[in-house]
Specification:
elongated; 4 helices
């Protein structure tokens, strides 16, 4: 009986040791997982930041190239206008040409700022929806609306990028036709932006719809 009791106590002590070791291993494993997840998150942030930096450099180089090209054409226009007999007409044409390029640049900058804000909003919205999904809510409609808005943003961004590369320096055929040439370039700017503006409006509507659908999905968690 005594031997049986000792064997029982030994086995109990062994069980306690194993359980304690298992708990310690579990704690260590949990800590390791958290550290690994944190490292992966930091690596992901670094990768995203690197891509952003590369994108900014590429955009900067492209903008510099466009500005150089426009400056070259403006110099050519100025040389052509210097030969005009009507100096007032020459001044007006040069001013119109400069203003058209400035208007295009301002609209591009404004559009890009809108698209950047829309993208940030959707990223935050997606995080909220993902969290709701993890908590058991049906997020199908919200994810669909967010995806649609992201698609609209991509289309609008591509159109704005294309628009940013366009040059609206007036091309003069003759001194007598300078006014008509200026009006034609002004009309071209208006027509080009008409299509881009349509995409931007559709994007704004899609983002608003994504917010509305997500708010319904999240319920009171706004």
């Amino acid at each position: 009986m005594k031997s049986a009791l000792i064997a029982f106590l030994v086995s109990l002590g062994l069980l306690v040791f194993v359980t304690g070791a298992s708990a310690e291993d579990s704690t260590t494993s949990s800590t390791t997982r958290r550290e690994t997840a944190k490292e992966k998150l930091e690596q992901r942030k670094d990768t995203i930041q690197a891509k952003k930096d590369e994108g900014k450099e590429a955009i900067g180089a492209r903008i510099d190239n466009i500005k150089d090209r426009i400056a070259s054409k403006e110099a050519a226009l100025k040389a052509r206008l210097s030969k005009f007999k009507d100096k007032k007409k020459a001044e007006i044409v040069e001013r119109v040409s400069t203003n058209l390029n400035r208007i295009n640049e301002n609209r591009v900058n404004h559009s890009n700022k809108f698209l950047e804000n829309a993208t940030r909003l959707l990223e935050k919205l997606q995080d909220r929806v993902n969290q709701a999904g993890n908590n058991g809510k049906d997020t199908t409609s919200a994810n669909s609306a967010i995806t649609d808005a992201k698609t609209k943003i991509a289309s609008a961004s591509a159109a704005v990028a294309t628009q940013s590369a366009l040059d609206y320096t007036v091309t003069i055929s003759s001194e007598s036709g300078a006014k008509a040439d200026s009006n034609a370039m002004r009309d071209k700017l208006h027509t080009d932006w008409k299509g881009v503006r349509k995409l931007l409006i559709e994007t704004e509507q899609a983002v608003a719809e994504a917010v509305r659908v997500a708010a319904t999905t999240l319920g009171g968690n706004k």
